[in-house]
Amino acid sequence: MTIINMKYSNYKISICHKITLALVLSLICVGNFSCKKIDDTQSVRLATEESNWKTLEDARANLLSVYGLLRSATVSDNTHWLMGDLRQGDFAITNRADLKSIVSGQLNAQYPVIKRITNWRRFYAAINAASIFIERSKEIVGKDPRYTQINNNVDVAQAKMLRGFAYFYMVRIWGDVPLLTSSHDGDFVKLPRTNKEKVLQFATSEVLAAAQVVPFRYGGTDPILPGLYYGGNWPTWNGIIFTRLSAYIILAHIAAWQGNYLDAANYSKFVLDNQSTQYFVDGANPLDYIDMDALTNNVNYYSPFAFKRATLMVGFPFEAGNGLSTANGHIEQLTLAAPFIPKETPEMFVPKDSILKIFTDPQDLRFGMIGNSGYYRTNYFTNFASEQPIFSKIKVVGTQAETQGNFTFYSSSMVFSRLEEITLLRAEACAVLGQRTEAINALNRAANLRGPIVYDPASGKDLIDAIFQERRRELMGEGWRWYDIVRYNRIKKSNGTFIKKNGTPLTFRQFEDAGGIYWPVSPDVINANSSVTQNPYWQ
Fold first, then answer.
1. Quick check: is 529 in a domain?
2. What single-letter DSSP state applies at residue 189?
3. Cis-peptide into 457, omega within 30 deg
4. What are residue 417's DSSP bridge partners?
5. Which residue from 104, 382, 445, 472 could staple onto 392, CB 3.0 to 4.6 Å apart?
6. CA 20/CA 27 separation, integer angstroms
7. What is the pTM of this model?
């Protein structure tokens, strides 16, 4: 995939160096499992306390470090995809036993990667960094006249949004988690787990408060925060930091996860109603629905995977032009092989029979046979005729020099949500509420981008099924599959066997009540804190 080349000022490069430093330090923090203090690693600060919290530059560096830490928490060891795409997902594993354990639901298997991704310490590093920023950044207002109260208000709102997003992300993984609402220099691991509903209530309040403060865009003509933001315009910042639309997307997902579809419908409607706030404004590319070539081949540089763009509404970029390519934290590390990178076989792939069952419309631009030619479209899959088709939907690979030897560098963004995703979530919410017309309109608005795939109300096809089938196709490889399975089964309330444990069949309700939808907590966490108990299903 082509990556746009741009000239960056020294100022913009310095921003990215700060993010890179935060990412590297946070990876060090993740690896140090023996530490017991939430901030005993310098990863939560980019300067010593003696010289910190004095200048506008301190504010910028510390805020961006929170983004860097949370980005690292979600993508290190490819956590986002291992947890979102493998459990009862569409991918098969070639030869990695640890990944096969995840696919088969053996989430307490003793593999190093499973031990690492089930340790929530890296999320608390980001949460603590956010709390420190919320508590201390106001000190700069009185010390540096360049750092205004409005600037601080917006920065603190972003930190609250990031903290709320981190808690929501953890609740989806573990259910109950310790709730820390202030910075902590002591043994945070001694705190017990807090009920997941209370944690989500806190996350909602954090993000909702932030949504009233942050602008729709930074560094331009937005009346909430007009003018340059830390010296940069909107093209500098779009796709990097969270906006007001980002806040309402997160709120919509929290509500949907709770089964509160009325709020999910309202929040998602706000996003779609205010889409125009991003359209060709302040010199940025438009935030609009993108066609197939833009999504998978970065035509016009609109792909949310390929570069920091407004189309990346909630997520974290890794821009190659700023030196942020990495070898870890990208789905391509698991899915690509020759001819894209010097690797014979991918570590995971979608089997051909699954592809044919998922993509049933021959006119689907994502995958299907081109007429009667015998050739298949390659937007999602390359070499379909081979035994292991390459999942090539996302393929943001480094330069040839970066792909020599055993290491390949990638630059794809971690995309949590984009316009097509939030549109499908609105379709889901409206369908649950019985608002069929609104649900069908939203479903067709997203699906029609991928070919003449129109849902006909007279077809008799179950609308909820149609929406989740489209989410399965559109969001494949974006870390959504498991969480969509959970929400689908909650909506359907089916009484059939969902899974078997030790030979005993369990309905989805029994499975969820036992805590099976969540991951086990790492033994390292429990050994360090006797007040943290294991999820019942994994005891």
1. yes
2. G
3. no
4. 314
5. 382
6. 11
7. 0.91
**In a domain? residue 8:** no
Q: What is the pLDDT of residues 281-333, one digit of tens each?
A: 888 878 899 999 999 999 988 999 998 889 999 999 998 877 888 999 999 99
pLDDT at 17: 40
Instruction: Give yes or no: residues 207 and 327 share one domain.
Output: no
The enclosing domain of 65 has a CATH number of: 1.25.40.390
Average pLDDT on 30-35 reads 32
pLDDT given for residue 401 in this prediction? 55
pLDDT in tens, 74-115: 999 999 999 999 999 999 999 999 999 999 999 999 999 999
Number of structural domains the chain divides into: 2
Residue 309 structure tokens: 């763009």
State how far the Cα of 262 lies from the Cα of 256, in Å rounded to an integer.
9
Do the domain assignments include residue 494?
no
Question: Do 230 and 240 meet the contact criterion of CB atoms below 8 Å apart?
Answer: no
Same domain, 69 and 204: yes
In percent, the amount of the chain with pLDDT more than 70 equals: 88
Exposed/middle/buried for residue 237 (C-beta within 10 Å: 0-12, 13-18, 19+): buried
Compute CA 429 distance to the chain's CA centroid, rounded to the nearest angstrom.
Answer: 20
Using alpha carbons, select from 46, 55, 64, 20 the residue that is nearest to residue 159. Answer: 64
**Average pLDDT estimate for 1-16:** 32
Residue 478, CB-side half-sphere exposure with 13 Å CA sphere: 25
Assess whether 74 and 209 both reside in one domain.
yes
Is residue 470, in this structure, part of any structural domain at all?
no
Name the nearest CA neighbour of 213 among 200, 222, 221, 203.
Answer: 222
Q: Where does a domain end: 412, 439, 462?
A: 412
Boundaries of domain holding 140: 51-213+519-538
| Same-domain check for residues 69 and 187 | yes
Q: Which residues of 3-12 are buried (b: 16+ CB within 10 A; e: fewer)?
A: beeeeeeeeb
Q: Average the pLDDT over each of 2-11, 92-101, 357-366 and give the range with the smallest value.
A: 2-11
Q: Which of 412, 429, 456 is the endpoint of a domain?
A: 412
Lookup result for tokens 């910190």: 52
Contacts of 97 (CB under 8 A, 6+ apart): 111
Same domain, 208 and 338: no
Q: Where are the beta strands (DSSP E) in 6-93?
A: 92-93
Residues 56 and 176 in one domain: yes
Between 419-432 and 436-447, two packed helices, what is the crossing angle to 10 degrees?
A: 160
Question: How far is the C-alpha of 170 from the C-alpha of 34, rounded, in Å?
Answer: 21
Q: Do 117 and 80 touch, CB atoms closer than 8 A?
A: no
Co-location of 382 and 528 in the same domain = no
Strands (DSSP E) found in 390-530: 390-391, 414-417, 497-501, 504-507
- Give the integer Cα–Cα distance in Å for 350 and 366: 14
Arithmetic mean of pLDDT, 120-143: 97
- Mean pLDDT on 62-83: 97
3-class DSSP state of 389: coil
Rounded to 10 degrees, the C-alpha dihedral 31/34/35/36 comes to 130
